[in-house]
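>> received
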Amino acid sequence: MLKYATPLLITTGLVLAGCAKKAPEELPPPPAGTTEPAPPASTGPGYAPGSQGDFVANTMSDRILFELDSYTVDSQDQAILQSQAQWLAQYPNARVTIEGHADERGTREYNLALGERRANAAKNYLASLGVSPDRMTTVSYGKERPEALGSNEAAWAQNRRAVSVVVQ
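>> returned
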């Protein structure tokens, strides 16, 4: 019985493979009298103005990084936050949540407090550039949401951050 099943399976497979449909090279035009909706206007590659994607595409970065056990905003962070403040000035109705993060070292409580200090440092710097504090909220995730997995300096450096997220 087995010697007859193998040729039958091969023959069936070949028949089915020959019936596969191929995608057309070009789609047919839409029916007469219909129009295709215009894509939404955007300032970035396919992102709606004022969205998180637009924010990431048109600022230096959505995040700043910190040294170990620090919440100091250095000169590189200042440049990033200045570009974020410029974008926020273009979209006065946009609100952001600034997330504070820490690497895996230290206790949960310590890292939550450090993440809060990092988020507040970014918020305070943006406020000093003219962004209304009413448009910004902060949250600390401590070490609970790592960007990079691993127990080495490269991973820890990516996890010590504050991230600005457009919420509206």
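>> The chain has a mean pLDDT of 85.
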